[in-house]
Amino acid sequence: MTDLLARLAALAAALDRGDDQAAAAAAAELAATDGPETLREALRQLHLFRGFPRALHALGLAADALAGPPPAADPTGADPERGEAVFRRLYGPDAEMVLDRIRALDPVLADWILDHAYGRVIAREVLPLTVRERLALLLLAADGCWNQWRSHARIALRLGIPPDRLAADLELAGWLDPATRGRAADLLRDLTGGPDG
User: Fold this and answer.
1) What is the pLDDT of residues 139-196, one digit of tens each?
2) How do the domains of the chain map onto residue ranges?
3) Distance (Å, whole) CA 185 – CA 152
4) pTM of this prediction?
5) Is 94 exposed, middle or buried (0-12, 13-18, 19+ CB in 10 A)?
6) Contact 39, 66 (CB under 8 A)
């Protein structure tokens, strides 16, 4: 799965740099190696962190790699209960605290996060949760969203991803600058309670 994450990181890094040629090449490699549906699913998840416009742009860049037409409809319909169940499973004992914090910021957005992000996107089984979370950590670090990074790092650790694997992920695709990698590594050490993670 590390190789899959490396290919996803290469695609996301190229998109973040605005390098359309490298993004199209990374999309083609991902589709050839992991299949067009894996590529499509990764680009779907991208909208959670980069917005719909950038996800649509990325889908356009990947059009040649996405063999055939997309599915006509999403079989994952709206189900707020499914989203909350996935959220609670991933956040474990922190779920109530995190949900309370999000609801205090904006209860409407909290409902959207549960229904859409967790119920319609993260609940999908095309990409393993471990891969989704590792990619989320890279995207959140690239944006400097450190509170959310900590929450997702806790999720990754709960999913059994070793701290040394998460630390190694920070080097993928030469994406993150040294200061960002350092900040993420420091936070990871804080979360795991040791100098080496």
Assistant:
1) 999 999 999 999 999 999 999 999 999 999 999 999 999 999 999 999 999 999 865 5
2) 1-73, 77-123, 128-197
3) 14
4) 0.91
5) middle
6) yes
